[in-house]
Batch of 2 targets.
Target 1
Amino acid sequence: MAGSADSCVRVPVDTGTSRYEILIGRSLLGDPASWEGLPRGRHAVIVSNTTVAPLWGAALREALQAHYTRVTVVELPDGEAHKDWPALSRIFDHLLTAGCDRKTVLFALGGGVVGDMTGFAAGCYMRGVPFVQVPTTLLAQVDSSVGGKTAINHPLGKNMIGLFYQPRRVVCDLDTLSTLPRREYVAGLAEVIKYGPIADAGFLAWLEDHLDELLARDDAALTHAIRRSCEIKAQVVGEDEREAGLRAILNFGHTFGHAIETGLGYGEWLHGEAVGCGMAMAADLSVELGMLPPEDARRLHRLLSRAGLPLRGPALGAARYLELMGHDKKSEAGQIRFVLLRRLGDAVVMPADDAVVSRVVERRSVDG
Amino acid sequence: MAGSADSCVRVPVDTGTSRYEILIGRSLLGDPASWEGLPRGRHAVIVSNTTVAPLWGAALREALQAHYTRVTVVELPDGEAHKDWPALSRIFDHLLTAGCDRKTVLFALGGGVVGDMTGFAAGCYMRGVPFVQVPTTLLAQVDSSVGGKTAINHPLGKNMIGLFYQPRRVVCDLDTLSTLPRREYVAGLAEVIKYGPIADAGFLAWLEDHLDELLARDDAALTHAIRRSCEIKAQVVGEDEREAGLRAILNFGHTFGHAIETGLGYGEWLHGEAVGCGMAMAADLSVELGMLPPEDARRLHRLLSRAGLPLRGPALGAARYLELMGHDKKSEAGQIRFVLLRRLGDAVVMPADDAVVSRVVERRSVDG
């Protein structure tokens, strides 16, 4: 399918403090029209990584040269293991060495790690410069590039240091998904699937019907899945930019998932894989607490399994899971808060008894 | 003079995005009433340094225990040389090790460095927790604790990485100034004096009349000087929180001053000393450009000199000054913007010809 910025799908986002658009379509990245109407400085800086920059860096750079006098590229090391201060510092070094001023615009070209780090750097550099998200993974397109959460990891916890800082635009070019390894693509599907159980039973049914097309990366299916995911996320974020309440439902599967990622060391499992398994655990916990019919949990498990996501967590031991979850940002006064399901399409945030959580974790671990 | 939170001076600040009060008076720090009405979490963390914590840490801790279940203290190394990532990281390590959640409140007990770093840490920890400024130096009381600028330094430039992040309250306890070394006290006077030439000729005249009382740290004079400084700063910040325009006048003397600090390495000169000398240079430049009568510049020079501030900069060479100023955040597209005087009490921001700037710098350097 041919495409361009003129014919693409546009999802508006209004967070209360800022408004921007998500563009979804083919061949957007190399089209100068995709970058019209953004803040204009002399200098645009593309932040990418060693995997994505060789694939898409040149096309983006060329398109941006229609609007900016100078376009430079910073390449970060690839992977969640490098979502840390030393890598962030490389962005600052580049900006300062290149003499970038307050009107410089940053472009995050890559997955969630690149997006989170670029957003954080943009929020801090000279106390804030504009930035644009150009997500090249399915996960980043449906989740991490929308909503303004930015962060780096700390050895004691994931995403512990960061900001709420909104991009000026998000450009999802479907072409970039063609170069995405299957494992990463499937991990991204976990975040797509998430929007069904937490907010839209109809979307869940649509996913059950169209999973094969999605796995084949069919154009029409992909466009609908990304659009609907972004719409749901934009609506939730619009009602609760700073995660005072509702927004927490977007973390369905993430409390367990972060424990898996932190427990194994970042980068062992992909984020989406951990979230997929975390959703399976959260559904089990919802059943265990008498909130969700067992057949609804089984329906979700079946979809996750068909997508190729892991349903069993590493055998860290229930005590270690609980300890790791206690460090989660969503915990308050040491109490862990879980996103649980009342039915498919309706999530609620609440604490749960340690003993019940332990039982669920043990049952869903590889040795359990 | 006895004092307490009930009888102190209160200056309201309204930045457009947040409102808070500056309390100015005696014996505020150890009075639980000073800390009433702040956000309540279980945990309060006092961030201080190895010089201030032994003097005032215990009193503040005791007063806060009336409101928080747990009060802990982080001690940072003292000085501008430590306004960097490793020191910031110690705050994060403490917060995570102590299991601090999103409702933890941070208290910055110290000078500008402690305030800037604590504010930045509060703005980033779990994407933002509340914080309170408890400035213990004159400079921090009249300048750095008001207005929400937070930052750390980068080897290539001062305050390059930071945020606009507003405190929930500022508590200026005059008692803490009694332990301040004279050199630091005088450096703080530079920022007090600044408010005269940029915004209030009447205040400048008052300072000329009351400088001896101020140097003797007289209670009434100090209270008036701090109050008027905070009022002017609050007004300017209220009209321009994010430094789009007007707020830049607060940087009178700072463009030259930052060049001095960066050129010598942080910590060689005190910030206020560099700003004092920078104001002398900026006044000269205003005269040189035909904007300010020479006698007005001489009046400002005389006041700075009486206060004990240095009027001559280090002999870095004009080229080096220009290079360092080009890295200043206030520069745009490589052009340096100076805060200059049209008359005493009226400042304007504009570029200036390199040759004229060089002449002024050479004349005001120790070997010039």
Target 2
Amino acid sequence: MSTESYHTQHAPFGAFASFTVGLVGGAGGFGQSLRGPARQNVYVGFRRGREAWRLLPFFVPPKSSAAVAYTGEAAQVGAPPPEPLRLHSLSPADYERRLDWASDAWTSGGFGFGLRTPFDRIPEPETLSAEAARFHFAPVVCGYLSYDNTAGAEAVELVFGIGEADAQMRPLDDTRPALAGFAGGNLFGYATAPSPDVSLRQGFSVFEDVPRDVRGLHVLGGETALVFKVPAGARREFPLVLGFYQAGVVTTGLTASYAYTRWFDSLEAVLQHGLEQHARYTELALRRDAELAASRLDADQKYLVAQATHSYLASTQLFQRADGRLLWVVNEGEYRMVNTFDLTVDHVFFELAWHPWAVRNTLDLFVERYAYLDEVRTPEGTRAPGGVSFTHDMGIMNHFTPAGRSSYECDNLSGCFSHMTMEQLLNWVLTAVTYAWRTEDWDWLGRNHPVLLRCVDSLERRDHPDSAKRDGILKCDSSRCGTGSEITTYDSLDVSLGQARNNLYLAVKTLGAWILLGRALRRLDDVAAAKRATLAVSRLCRSLVERFEEDTGFFPAVFEQGNHSRIIPAVEGFAYPLYLGMEDELAPLAPLIERLRKHLRGIFKAGVCLDATSGGWKLSSTSTNTWFSKIALCQHVIRRLFPDTLTPEARAADRVHADWQRRRGCGAFAMCDQILSDSGKVCGSRFYPRGVTTYLWLLE
Amino acid sequence: MSTESYHTQHAPFGAFASFTVGLVGGAGGFGQSLRGPARQNVYVGFRRGREAWRLLPFFVPPKSSAAVAYTGEAAQVGAPPPEPLRLHSLSPADYERRLDWASDAWTSGGFGFGLRTPFDRIPEPETLSAEAARFHFAPVVCGYLSYDNTAGAEAVELVFGIGEADAQMRPLDDTRPALAGFAGGNLFGYATAPSPDVSLRQGFSVFEDVPRDVRGLHVLGGETALVFKVPAGARREFPLVLGFYQAGVVTTGLTASYAYTRWFDSLEAVLQHGLEQHARYTELALRRDAELAASRLDADQKYLVAQATHSYLASTQLFQRADGRLLWVVNEGEYRMVNTFDLTVDHVFFELAWHPWAVRNTLDLFVERYAYLDEVRTPEGTRAPGGVSFTHDMGIMNHFTPAGRSSYECDNLSGCFSHMTMEQLLNWVLTAVTYAWRTEDWDWLGRNHPVLLRCVDSLERRDHPDSAKRDGILKCDSSRCGTGSEITTYDSLDVSLGQARNNLYLAVKTLGAWILLGRALRRLDDVAAAKRATLAVSRLCRSLVERFEEDTGFFPAVFEQGNHSRIIPAVEGFAYPLYLGMEDELAPLAPLIERLRKHLRGIFKAGVCLDATSGGWKLSSTSTNTWFSKIALCQHVIRRLFPDTLTPEARAADRVHADWQRRRGCGAFAMCDQILSDSGKVCGSRFYPRGVTTYLWLLE
């Protein structure tokens, strides 16, 4: 499809790095901890005999040769102008691209290029053998170049190269003869196995022939490439490995270095490992691809799962602290905030399938360092002791903020950048119980019984410090807000989702949290506390039922000030009990669920929560800013609990959502989350990990 | 002068880093190992009361607030547009700038801002106390902000800040309460001492008031600043320190880390040291400033010395190797080549004054790793054994090329990027004897006696392998050139300076080398070898005299193919014997010197070696590409040996040369070397260290 044009982040596990490529006419390449794509030209393609090179369109043609800075006047007036580069940039009509769960492959006639980003179920890291740890945690991406020249009458050359003048590169065989390829300092590089069919190029242009030193390179040049030869009559596939490496302490606030440095002492070691394990990585990637292919999802859904998983992996970061303990981070895409809790609670479904220990790691650090106590401001305007909650995040761009403080939350605000005290309290409860229940880590649940009890207290007091005034709905703002008020994770939407107090979305999420708390406390034989949870559920259910607008058939988004926005995330909070198989807990909620069903029936209409222009899902009827990861989460809940509410238009929107990502409105920034529902243009949350909520679709 | 607009690199010693600032309307800031200025907005200025901020013009006003990426739609349609920033960018007419040898100061009314980059005579590093080593090698730049508000009726605020969204910064007091300031990771930062008069700002804009967290910052924001308060009626000066830090191995090929990591364990340690030693650094900078001010140079020359010294320091790099030995590197400006030998030989005058051990360090590494043996191609077309020479450089961008190979030199070329075998052989001889003679390091000279003898052999054989055919002038090309031929350091000029064989410039430089060799060998009591040197001098002098065009009164630049270019560097080779006080050696060369005098008398005319448009010096009459560092070197030689040849026009050119550097043609890239003599525009060698040849002017 020629309108497709999108970057994908090809990333190892836990390295906060990606090789980004795919946008038509766009640069990309090796990026370490960036907010968006790197700025390298990526040269991938082939030529038959002495024809022009045919390259995938992953580069911005250089305006003039970098050699001019050296040759000065001579190049300007003396020497003849250089021959125009014999490059032909393939247009999307000339090739096919196929993004799978762990593979991204381009084919054009006999030519093939692919990148593999396998992921696997990783047991507790501390139990892994060194060999297994090296396999799972190597900061390496595998790929290949291939050509079927069996019917060809002349030799074909394949090329993989990088052009970036700022990042001067070096030939790897200077330091490791077993590697044919290039590296940028000790930080990133690419290689294949040396062979008579492989040659290296480096120069101001890898497609010009001169100048060359004694081994055929010009080490001054800002462009490097591997060239592979496929004789007439032959079919060849060459392995490629792309590696990253960052030595030493990379964080501040908390001192930590990449965990992979425990098993690899250099970039060269990473690349050599990648070549040695290339077949195993490939096999694993193909297994993942086959699993997604075998699912009952349609092609658009499969694409969304695949693209989302790639960007998730690119945001992951596995550290070891100074004392040797592992430290898990998911960075918040372009914002690079550390372990934003609103994302943790959404990543939990994917992470519990693949690396469940990562969830526990984050929960523990929230308790250890990012919990706090506050007071609350009651609706009556008085102050009262509040309770425990957790920060929005743990810092930004490898900097861990001081204990009890996030990088995001500011004071005296009522919109974006205010505190999310209630939201994060719910996130700890939901993530913690979901982790323990799914992994059956009852020891951990037992150790955290006191934390759960503090959460029960805090939840109740935010409803109201006076138990007689509780109705289950958040009515108090944290004292941390100063003169402002709490917001929800939906910080950039309008008030329908942005205000925490008296908010429908947050109330149903609170219901979900109380259901999980009740089960966890019963499991812990804490009958008294479990009773408080049961009471909270019934109280909240009753209150919500009362908020239903019987006349319109809708719930208002905010139970205040005559709000009449209609929102899809009214049902988001059911995701957790559904995921844990607690459907029986929902039976007593039938009056609420029936009203939510009516609500949903009313909103899947063009101009309400389906965009009148695009047909895409709008989280709120009154905001064109819609978030794909949350759409995916709500789709899952609705397909499981309210499938009959999905109109054919609502079901058809997967195509719209996939097109948003794979066209230029979002495609320049890999997976995007905040999208304008009418135009499909990204308006925030680029390069974003949270799309892995789509993993829930595979559980349906 | 309002046409002035230029960046200056404010750099510590040996850190290959600079804080670059000064270009009107241009970004700059903290740059580590870059090819040109960084891309940070630098906010420096003041405001009275609640007036608009008045800032020096070191920033590119942001087009839209970075907050939009977070607030999405809300910022676009919901919220009122943010108030326009109350910033007033000062124009050059509003302030004065004064660049001194180790200070750069801006004043505007009562406001003052300055940066200090002191340098000192550094004894052998291995003999230094830890305290002295910390003082000399700290990767820190000191500065200040001041305001004289004695006559003011309201408080004034001063600001120093940085804006760069890619380099997320962090407040330093998270990790070191004794520092008020910000850092980008562990890599760079700025600080002052905490005080009630100092406050910190961080946000999407440091000039907007919201949002702010509990300590008044917004750690998400890409802009940071220190704000200093000066009460009405008071005069205040606040210290500022700017620091760099790069931990661990930063090189490849040869394994090395920054020497300063031996004495500083973190960026924080560097910044704190900078604050503690601020007064000493300031005192040292002012001493350097006073020395330059007291010299007999005119204002233009002083400016050139100051600007050149700044860019030299920015290119220096002091490493320690894995075995603990120190490793000295000067990077070649924008090209970032390691220890380019053509530069080493020009830096020697500055380095022998301030850190002479650095010269020895480089000479030793050339012998240890970057010497090679070749064959030569005779004029008769035969091959014969050649001799020892040295590579053009040792690598590029922290990568050391394999032994015996440079990053620059390629095969089968006759122009730019060919081999410089003879040039580098001369450079080793000249640098080595100059080092030993000046420092009286006779031990080292003795140890290198065998190397000198190999150089004598090699020099003779490049003249001609058959002693009967020798006339002192290079006639053989190295076999490394393949089908091409050797070039000189003047690679980007036309053939008048570019071709090595039969080249006037190189022949006089050869004369200089033989003079130094003769003295060194006599000192070593090697009578036989000294005799060969004496013979070579007289032979070469005679040959050169014969090449003089008695009809035109000029020397041709190349003794081949009817070349009639006229060149200034005909006298460059005298710099070394003059520097070493060997004037007596020149007496027997009177016939040559008299003809060179005639040559010079003829060339200092508009349209010959003075540019007809600008009046600047042209190294060659047939090339508009002229190199400032070489002009400066030749000016020194000519003022000492041929002062009577300088026409008033030739003497007036210092103003032209200074204007080239301080206006926009070169100013965007700090000190530039390759300049188009008509327009004053840089055409290569930006951000360049070699301008320290101007140091010779202070010896006149």
